[in-house]
Structures are given as structure tokens and as C-alpha cells.
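dumping the sequnces here before i forget
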Amino acid sequence: MPDSRPSRPGVVLLSGGLDSATVLAIARDRAFDAHTLSIDYGQRHRCELDAAERVARALGARTHRVVRLDLRAVGGSALTDDTIDVPKSDDISPGIPVTYVPARNLALLSIALGLAETLNARDLFVGVNAVDYSGYPDCRPAFIEAFERTANLATRLGVEAAERGEAAPFRVHAPLIEMSKADIVRTGVSLGVDYAMTVTCYDPDGDGLACARCDACRLRARGFADAALPDPTRYQAGARP
Amino acid sequence: MPDSRPSRPGVVLLSGGLDSATVLAIARDRAFDAHTLSIDYGQRHRCELDAAERVARALGARTHRVVRLDLRAVGGSALTDDTIDVPKSDDISPGIPVTYVPARNLALLSIALGLAETLNARDLFVGVNAVDYSGYPDCRPAFIEAFERTANLATRLGVEAAERGEAAPFRVHAPLIEMSKADIVRTGVSLGVDYAMTVTCYDPDGDGLACARCDACRLRARGFADAALPDPTRYQAGARP
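..and the predicted 3d for all of it:
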């Protein structure tokens, strides 16, 4: 994705799923030199980490890192505690589901912020979405705004800028936050994202094939359907959303 | 430390150093049922993790956990990158030192918040101090206040309370934040903390003995001297602050 504009470094949280792959493509399209960061937090769907590495390479990330954070020692979610099942149903469940991982996005963004400061980058990118989403609190604009403010108070670069009377340096970009899943899919396709590389399912089988019935699978399938684009997701035998 | 008041659960970030040991004693004195949390973030002074376990037991923590977060993959600090030396001098260096770990306290508090939510606790305790400290941005009141606000937007409990029109549930206690190191030491001694158990040095030897010359050693020694209390720190042969 060559671009004549001067590039700036940016840190992109990359889970390996549909949303964050789209965000990486957007960051690259905006001429950011992308340093992708995946967090191995003990998630049930760890095969997404392999997907993240493929996506980072395909979309021209400058560097890709995996940082381990053992949220299984904290638990409290179907994604980090094997004794809690991932819900499978015929529709998206109302309310905040058991796949919510307590304070996860705050922890992920904090690690991304530390990496940004180390790399002397000022821009963080995260694929949160508050429209076609599972009801997670840490995907809403109010959270992202509060995090950005905290980030500028938590860091050397933020404090030194304030002392010089300069604007807060760190900016959190959440370009998908107000988009429908169909818009996200359309945007990604227009930027050349190959969604066959991505893994969305919360409960894939050993080959990374999707279950088609968890909330994440349903939202993803609905996005392709609403966008009237072919869904490249690889489902388990007999499974169809 | 038995107490007739009803106990509430609280999460205490416990590094194994002097400050967080004092905070644990304060939380117990306030009748909190303390769940201590240490983060193994790849710190150079990992022997503090053993100290944390000893301190948790001695001060009656209900549970103690160690969560791994690999900040060596992020780097950018003398504490997480062995190619950056811990400064040794005859006085505390001005400005933010190279022992600052980018966004560390934000990441630590985020993990503590996730644990609190899992345990249905509302109170977090952290031993930050903005008086006799090394100039870290993430030890100041403005940061703690911003974090607390973000915490209540990042979590299920926070969002559900807001929807019911209730007060923000999570509270971050930083009882040392305005105290001198001498006051911290006096408080801890009055609450029965055995500081011989704690490890403060950023660059201890293989036996956990302190170097006496890093900023952390200097601040600690000055605290005992100012409080006119005996310093139980075990120093390396020939080392004296």
C-alpha cells in the first residue's frame, strides 16, 4: 500500500478478527507506519493470534508483536474461563454477555499505550464498535474518550507536553466506533482486506473453523449479508449462520 | 488483624515493596478483606514477587495472585530492558528517570480492575506516592482520578450502575499519595508491617540484597532516617545508603 504522504508511526491493536483487520487497513490508508500489537490474554480462541500475524504481514505492518497477559488468572469470562460456556443461540443475546472480559479493553489499550510511548508514536488504533456489537461497555465512545484523557496523564510524553503548554500528544483512533458491521465490511473490502484471513468466532474448532452460532459469528455473518458481499468465513462441517 | 466491622472485598496491588505493603496494612486496618495482586511484568527486580507473597501472608490477605504481563516485549525502561542500566548516584536524579516503565501503572491498575470486577469488589488500593517519589507521571493524583473515571466507564458494573442512576461503583484508594516517605514508614510500623520482608531496590543481587544507590534505595533509606526508625533493609556487602 505505497503512499506518497510522509508516514508517522502508529500502534494498531490487532486481534486477528474482522474489525481490527479493517482498522489496520484504515491506518495504512491514512499513511501510518503501523506497528501491530496482539495480546495473548489466554483467550479461548487463540487461533486468532495466528490470524493476526497473517493479517499484519498482508497489510504491510512495519512490526508485529505478541505480548502475553495471563487473564486466565483473573477469569470472570467465557473467553478466559473454560468452565463458562460460550453462548450459542439463534440470535444476539440482550445485555452484556458472559463473553465480556472484565476490563479487557482497558488493559489492552494500556499495553498499546506503553508500546506507543516506547516507539515514540502518538497514535493508537483500536477496532471497537458500538453499533453492531455485543453490548460490551468498553466499546463505547465515552470509554474511549476517558481512556485518551487518562493516557495523556499516565505517561512521560503526556506530562512533558502539558508542562510545555502543548496539546495532549496521545490520540486514540476508533474509526469503526459509529459504523455498522456492513459498513465495516464494505470499507475493508474497498481497502483490499482479505477477510478469509481473519478469525472472528469465539469458539472455533482445532482447525480454526467457525461455529456459526456464537454472537461474534452472527454479527459477522449479518455484516456480510447486509453489505451484499460474499462471506469468506470457513465454518465447521454442517454449520451455517 | 481481627476487626469487628463487617468486611468488604478489596483488591490491593502488591509489589513487595515498602509502599504497597503499607497500603495492604491500611486496607486491612480499614476492615477490607484484601485480595492481593502482584504483576510479574518482567521487572529486573523480580525477587520483589517473593517478597509480595511473604507480605500478603503476614498481613492476612484473603487471596494472593501473580498475573504475568510480558512488558519486556514492550521495553523502554531500565526495569524491563537489560541493555538500559539502573542509574546509581549520590542523590535522586531530577526529571522522569529511565526506570519509568511506559504506562505501567495504567496497565497494573487495569488488571486490578478486572480482578475486582470478577470478585465483585468495588475498591482498589494502590501505593502510589507523589511526594517522596521518583517523578513518575503515573503516581500523581490527576492520573488516579482520571483512571477512576475511566474504570467506571470500562466495566459492566460501572455501566450497569450508571444505567440505574447509581453512583460510580469503583473507587481507587491511594492512601499514600500525599504522604512523605517518613510518614509512610511511621504508618506501616504503627500497623505492624515488618519492613524487613519487603524489597525496594531496583537492582538487587541474586540474594535480594539492596544496592543502596538507586533512587528507590535512596528514597527508602531517607524515609527511615527522617522517621527516626531503624532501617531493616538488607544491603549488599559494603553497601550503605
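Chain A has a mean pLDDT of 92.
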